[in-house]
Each structure stands twice: as C-alpha cells, then as structure tokens.
Design brief:
mainly alpha; 9 helices; 77% helix
Amino acid sequence: MESTKKLSIKDLATIGIFSAIMIVVFIAFSMITGASLFFNMILNAVFTALILGPFFVYMAMKVGKPGVALIYNILQAVLATVFMGPFMIPWFVGGGIIAELSMIGTDSYRNIKRITIAWIITSLTRAAHGMSEIWFFKDAFLKTGVSPEQVQVQTQYYTDVKWVLISLALTVVTAIIGCYLGNKMTEKHFRKTGIIK
C-alpha cells in the first residue's frame, strides 16, 4: 500500500531539489513582473501555476509517495516567513495539509488527476495568500512595514468579489494546463526511458 511507504533520504533530496528550483523560478518571475502591483496581486499566481505545474508533476511522480505536497507547501511557508513574517505559516501549512489529504489512497502520486487536484489546492493557497493578508492577518501584515499605498491597493482588489474570483478561477485553469503539460512531458521524456516507473 502506498500509505505505508516511507520517504527515503533520496526522496527527500528529490523534493528538496525540485522545491528549491521551483522557488528560484518563482522568485525570478516575481522580480521580473514586480513593477506591476496589479499583476502581482491578480496574475502572478495564475502564471506561476502554469510555469511550475510541470515541475510539481515530475516531482510527485518521481517520488511517488505521500508527503510531497505537504513538504512543498511547508517550504513555501518558510519562504513566506522570510519575506513576510511567521504570521503566514498557518496559511501555507494549512494549504499543504489539505493538498496532502486530497492525495490519500493507493498510487495517488502516480495518478495525474490526483496530482492535478493537489496542485490546484497548492496554487490556490499561493493565489489567496495576499488576500489572506487583508482578510485575516491585516494587523500582522501592517507590522511588516508594508506601505500604506500597497495596503490600500490590496484592500481595493481583494475585497472586490470580481477580482478575487477572476484571480482564483484563472489560477485553477492554468494549474490544470500546467499539470497537463507536465504529464505530457513526463510521458514523453521520462516514463519511456524508465526514469519514472
């Protein structure tokens, strides 16, 4: 049973390496697009879900054991702590727990549909983290020294149902596309060569 499999040192190394690559890509992308506050608030997570989807698919299928989604989201929590503070830890860890729970079952980490569900949850966690700063953690967010202008703009968009739904809906779509592309690449380049069983 998959649920009895334990992560090995090699598995943890694989998760760590791919998570690090994904974090570097995310930071680089965010720096490139950082000039536009609107893009960062509404579309950053949308494109991130697409770009990082193939990495997540490969990582999940390569390891093939429970824990991948949770560990990745915990590392996201660490990243959020570095840039924003520890108040975001519960948000990302909570998202990771939900993503991991969605993977309960035999061989779910070999099933692209189940992996896609976990990636959608993970991507939505990232997409809504800025919203959560306004909805749930505003006092802690203000203590980070964020400018009043940024808070005002975030509040404007993240309390507008239209923009919230647009951001989250597009994130779901691109997460699905990212996993679809990742599965195609995995089938073509890795499964046939035996790198992934």
